[in-house]
Amino acid sequence: MLSIARRTAAGAALLLVMPVAVWVSGWTWQPEPGGWGLKMFYWITETVTEPWGVITHVLLFGWFLWCLRFRLKAAIVLFAILAGVILLGQSVKSYVKKSVQEPRPFVVWLEKNKQVPVDEFYALKRKQRGALVERQLADMDSLPLYLRKHWQFETGYAFPSGHTMFVASWALLAVGLLWPRRRTFTIVLLLAWATAVMGSRLVLGMHWPRDLIASTIVSWLLVTLATWLTQKLCGPLTPPPEEASDIRERAE
């Protein structure tokens, strides 16, 4: 358990570098005119937004299963654990959002620039909030349509970040489950993807740095437990002798 906690903690520390640096720098979000950079961040965030997030989840599970090469029974247990950690993370996110009720950055911006009080905004039903955002931004051609549509869809509270919890969980699961198999490329790729999605949530005006930090910490706790359960219920994460020799050959 301790070795699992150490390596997942190392992964979490890497994910925390960006949001902590942004928080310490004092950076504040302001809406930017559309450009290729903003559009890139939008598509990055869409890899987690419904319905694409479901497809991402299925693809990642298939890849993890191929990398670990468990037998059928262990594979079913692995599926339950991976699905469980993602769903539990999203449940925690939903509960905390309702309890903390922190407004999103773009909602605070609407209050300052469009005289839409935050309290009145969140007193509305979700569909009414989306309609209000659409009306208030109808004359703002400087904001790209895809960003305005995204704001209309994402009118919930900010803290913590569900997108971050999703990507951080998968990236840390890669660290926890795939490091013994030396799937270094997959681990680096998922850590980079997670960091990019987290950055996109800041750039698009959806979250504050502290939202990302809290979500990463919660994900680390859940993933550490999930990795331990996988090892206990599915067998050792270290590769069998024949695969171990292949790993050594790749390293050489």
From TrEMBL:
Which keywords does this Swiss-Prot/TrEMBL entry list?
Answer: Hydrolase, Membrane, Transmembrane, Transmembrane helix
Question: Which GO cellular component does the record give, naming just one?
Answer: plasma membrane
Per the record's keyword annotation, is Cytoplasm included, yes or no? no
Stated EC number for the protein is 3.6.1.27
The entry lists its GO molecular-function terms as: undecaprenyl-diphosphatase activity
Reaction equation(s) it catalyzes: di-trans,octa-cis-undecaprenyl diphosphate + H2O = di-trans,octa-cis-undecaprenyl phosphate + phosphate + H(+)
What PANTHER family does its record include? PHOSPHATIDYLGLYCEROPHOSPHATASE B, SPHINGOSINE-1-PHOSPHATE PHOSPHOHYDROLASE
Put simply, this protein is called undecaprenyl-diphosphate phosphatase
Which organism was this protein described from?
Pluralibacter gergoviae (Enterobacter gergoviae)
**Phylogenetic lineage:** Bacteria, Pseudomonadati, Pseudomonadota, Gammaproteobacteria, Enterobacterales
Q: Which gene encodes it?
A: pgpB
